[in-house]
Amino acid sequence: MGFLSNIRNNIQIAKRKKASQINGKHLKGLLKKFKEERDRIENETGIRPQIDDTTQMFMQKNPKCMDLRR
Length: 70
Prior knowledge:
Layout: H1 2-45, H2 53-61
């Protein structure tokens, strides 16, 4: 019985890991779109809009996204 529960746990862990990777890819895509929109607004108005608090917290927690700030 322990063998089957280990397999079940491993499958659940693998599913969670895959789901988190997919969510991360979608979030990175959204952040990229936000950056492009901010760039467009800056080109039109000459003033760069502020990053909202939620996006800024995510970027601080994930150093890989820091290049999206500018």
